[in-house]
Amino acid sequence: MDKNYVLVAGRANPELAKSIADHLNMPLFPVDILQFKDGEIQVYFNDTIRGKDVFIIQPTFSPADNIIELLIAIDAAKRASARNIIAVMPYFGYARQDRKDKPRTSIGAKLMCNLLTTAGVNRVITMDLHADQIQGFLEVPVDHLFASNVFIPYIQSLNNPDIMIASPDTGGTKRASTYAKALNCDLAIGFKQREKQNEVASLHILGDVRGKEVILVDDIIDTAGTLCKAAEAIKAMGAKSVNAMCAHGLFSGEALERIENSVLETVLVTDSIPLKRPCSKVRVVSVAKLMADVIESIEQCASISKHYYV
């Protein structure tokens, strides 16, 4: 029997989309994504999607074309009479702009949610939002998944009694605490101060890391400045080793060079964002099966609670 849903791949991460489709044992739906000479994007579905659920797989990391492409694909599906339109956004761009942290600034995350709603999305699947409250910015169901689904089993497989979880900053305390609780191990927390965006002025570690195999956990690696400074501080305090696990590897600017020259032994990231170029210390683990399982559960109206670590 034919499935009553289709998978559509945007151009941001076609490899992940293909992997998700392979796990579901179905092809990606044929779609043309055209770009005019001036940069305008047009999306065209090559066959009927009337009455079908359309899953559009598109993380929205930079450039902004990725966001525009997703919005136009949603609009095209709506105008083609899709039954439901589900945005599968392994990485939700602009999630760091979740509040007014100073006067006269934007709340970019809320704007992105407004745009998705206006375009016609019926549901959003995403992973490791920078701020949990973004789920409330949308007036449609949000399935907020976590990279811990693949990271925690990996750590458990190491069977290392000296493991210790650390957060590179106070903003990630809740996430790191979840890992520490699941692994029944100790927790350390970094306290940082910034003088300006993407530049750490000072960083201090709270917790006894002496003799421990420390794993730093975070949601995003952008410039890797905080991560590398935290790793250096932890190592200087007597840790046996420092590794890192982060859901989304943006790796902006000289991030990969910083990691290569840091005390970090390995950095594990998911394939929510394609790796820009190889780095000897960076390893990628796929979340394709996680996304595929959730898509199948949604279509079968089944619970997805088993995909959460709380």
How would you describe this protein?
There is one protein chain. Helix 1 packs across helix 8. The chain has a seven-stranded mixed sheet, sandwiched between helices. It has a five-stranded parallel sheet with strand order 1-4-5-6-7, with helices on both faces. The two termini are 37 Å apart. By secondary structure, the chain is of the alpha/beta class. It has eight helices and 14 strands.
Low-confidence stretches: none
For the report, how would you describe the main beta sheet?
7 strands, mixed
Structural class: alpha/beta
Strand order of the largest sheet: 10-9-8-11-12-13-14
CA-based shape:
globular
Helix tally equals: 8
| Element order: H for helix, E for strand | EHEEEHEHEEHEHEEEHEHEEH
Secondary structure layout plus pairing:
Layout: E1 5-9, H1 14-23, E2 31-35, E3 41-45, E4 53-57, H2 65-79, E5 84-89, H3 108-119, E6 123-127, E7 142-145, H4 148-158, E8 163-167, H5 173-183, E9 187-196, E10 199-206, E11 213-221, H6 225-236, E12 241-249, H7 255-260, E13 267-270, E14 282-285, H8 288-299
Parallel strand pairs: 1-4, 4-5, 5-6, 6-7, 8-9, 8-11, 11-12, 12-13, 13-14
Antiparallel strand pairs: 2-3, 9-10
Helix pairs in contact: 1-8
Q: Quick gist of this model?
A:
The protein has helices at 14-23, 65-79, 108-119, 148-158, 173-183, 225-236, 255-260, 288-299, and strands at 5-9, 31-35, 41-45, 53-57, 84-89, 123-127, 142-145, 163-167, 187-196, 199-206, 213-221, 241-249, 267-270, 282-285. The chain has 310 residues and is of the alpha/beta class. The longest helix is centred in the N-terminal third of the chain and has 15 residues, at 65-79.
